[in-house]
Amino acid sequence: MNTVQILLMGFISVVIVNNLVFTKFLGICPYLGVSGRIDMAFGMGCAVTFVVTLSGTLTWLIDHLILMPLGLEVTRYVCFILVIAGAVQLVEMYVRKFFPSLYDSFGIFLPLITTNCAILGLCLFINLWGIDNLLEAVVLSAGAGIGFTLAICIMAGIRENLNLADVPDSLKGAPITLITAGLLTLAFMGFAGMIR
Amino acid sequence: MANDSTSSVSLSRTFLTGLWHENPVLRLLLGMCPTLAVTAAVKPALTMGLSVIFVLLCSNIVVSLMRNLLKPHLRILMFTLTISTFVTIADLFLKAFAPVMSETLGPYVPLIIVNCIIICRAEACASKNTLLVSVLDALGMGAGFTLILCVLAGIRELLATGRVFEIQMMPGEFVPWAAMGMPVGAFITLGLLLGLANLITKKKI
């Protein structure tokens, strides 16, 4: 297989088959918290996509150019979380300057991207899968972000309609959202095994 | 004496709120990712719970001790650095003494860094309270988290394999529900568990 094919397969795999939300349970907090309205969900997805692409690329570079040659793998987690916190700070400043209304509606969830498991999770998975090529790392990071956006937008669309449904009292809110997420996961399981 | 007894009552309440009234998973919806990811069986769930208790306890102690030195705009960074240091310790410990378990949990051990429970307790409790209160709060919250993890893992392992803690529980003709071991089972079981908790709270009032 040539490089383009490998990249394309990796991209489809991380967006659909190994979607971080549905198969690895990463990024569940914003997935449940910000999926009330579809425009906010899309904004959140874009912010996460940007942060995850930036930090996935940067952590791969730091890991391979600084930590591995110097034998400092022990400090890997501390370095990764610093990079992610820096990237989130950047996005926060940008959104506050150019999209003030979006900034207000995000509230606490914007700084909480730092503690979004999808981002740190992806950086760790890139390390775990043994990706040794910068281009592949970039494509996988962007794919993970797009996969997250896809998942959160589908969820927001369903929840907007769920507002009109007659849900039993004690299942209202988070419980019914989780059950919906379970059914969505079942649908995405149909893609399992399509690509490794 | 009267003062002493009231303070010990309030201290024990600090511990107990974490178990039910403010249970991190059922009430505050924190730490969902590990709750869903490691609960396919009881053993990894228990290991995860104990690691979280260790990290939560250590980070609460450190944050509580340095609470007067914290600058407001740098505090989140300080919290995450403290937490990631202790998670590195826990990860290396598991790798050295329980390599099989460490392999099973995989990246979910380093992901304790971004477990919202720990940063939430550092922000809401340890950065404002004395050492003793912070320690009890960490123990209560950690125990509440571990409890839910084990209940969820118990249900899923029983239905997915017919065994709990790798001991046969169901009669021989029981057909395992394979779906319970998959992500679907995790989402739906947790959803129903949250609904049940809501129902119980409503009955009490």
What does this structure look like?
The complex is a heterodimer of chains A (196) and B (205). Chain A is globular, with a radius of gyration of 18 Å. In chain A, helix 4 (38-70) runs antiparallel to helix 8 and helix 7 packs antiparallel against helix 8. Chain A has one domain (20-190). With 196 residues, chain A is mainly alpha-helical. Chain A has helices at residues 3-17, 20-24, 28-33, 38-70, 76-98, 100-106, 117-128, 134-162, 174-188. Chain A starts with a helix and ends in an 8-residue tail after the last helix. Residues 1-5 of chain B have low confidence and may be disordered. Chain B contains 8 helices and 2 strands, in the order αααααααββα. With 205 residues, chain B is mainly α. Chain B is globular and about 60 Å long. Chain B is 69% helix and 2% strand. Chain B has a two-stranded antiparallel sheet. In chain B, helix 4 crosses helix 6 (116-126). Chain B starts with a helix and ends with a helix. Chain B has one domain (17-204). In chain B, strand 1 (163-164) and strand 2 (167-168) form a beta hairpin. Chain B has helices at residues 2-19, 32-37, 42-65, 75-97, 99-105, 116-126, 131-161, 183-204, and strands spanning 163-164, 167-168. Chain A binds chain B through residues 22-29, 32-33, 74-75, 77-78, 81-82, 85, 111-112, 114-117, 119-121, 124-125, 128, 168-172, 174-179, 181-183, 185-186, 189, and chain B through 29-30, 32-33, 36-37, 76-77, 80-81, 84-85, 87-88, 91-92, 106-107, 110-111, 113-116, 119, 179, 182-188, 190-192, 194-196, 198-199, 202.
